[in-house]
Specification:
The complex is a heterodimer of chains A (115) and B (110).
Chain A lengths: L4 E3 L2 E4 L5 E6 L6 E8 L3 E9 L14 E5 L5 E5 L8 E8 L9 E2 L3 E5 L1
Parallel strand pairs in A: 2-10
Antiparallel strand pairs in A: 1-3, 3-7, 4-5, 4-8, 6-7, 8-9, 8-10
Chain B lengths: L4 E2 L2 E5 L4 E6 L7 E7 L5 E8 L4 E4 L2 E6 L4 E6 L8 E8 L5 E3 L3 E6 L1
Parallel strand pairs in B: 2-11
Antiparallel strand pairs in B: 1-3, 3-8, 4-5, 4-9, 6-7, 7-8, 9-10, 9-11
Classes of the chains: A mainly beta (115), B mainly beta (110).
Chain lengths: 115, 110
Amino acid sequence: GAGVSQSPSNKVTEKGKDVELRCDPISGHTALYWYRQSLGQGLEFLIYFQGNSAPDKSGLPSDRFSAERTGGSVSTLTIQRTQQEDSAVYLCASSLDQGHNSPLHFGNGTRLTVT
Amino acid sequence: GEDVEQSLFLSVREGDSSVINCTYTDSSSTYLYWYKQEPGAGLQLLTYIFSNMDMKQDQRLTVLLNKKDKHLSLRIADTQTGDSAIYFCAERRGYSTLTFGKGTMLLVSP
């Protein structure tokens, strides 16, 4: 079946502009995650949604970052007033639930370049 | 410390075995995972192991877990050039999200 889909695959924006990144999780997956992958930094957790519970926003690096998940499915990550240090690959993942044995399934990511 | 640690780079010849090592931090971690990332792609789940197991084998992959030392390893038998990628170790702490290492780049030469 279809995997996690992210769009756009690449985004180039000017410093100071806002960007929106989209994630379509696997159908039926109740948990959705956003990670950021920077060169040499590994994967940095950003935010986590589980069903109708309040999201875990503990990984968001600043108040310029926000995310929402509408109808328990599609999620949008918004970065306001982008800075050059925001340049990274933003990865979305979903899992069946939050159980210990529910592995995360990742999309191919959105490569964001801030000029 | 807080980090999941991995060596950054491993180079092997085709046909050899590869062993990628990882140390994790939380003794209460319930599941430990190995993911593979090829250039330009997302992370692909390779295998995972429950913390009450010592070993798990899946075709060419063998995962060994030493809970006492919080050490996890991934062995790839008969390594092929198509195995060249970055390999990430991750731990799940309680019901939270996964915490990843920085990844080990595996380079397989013919």
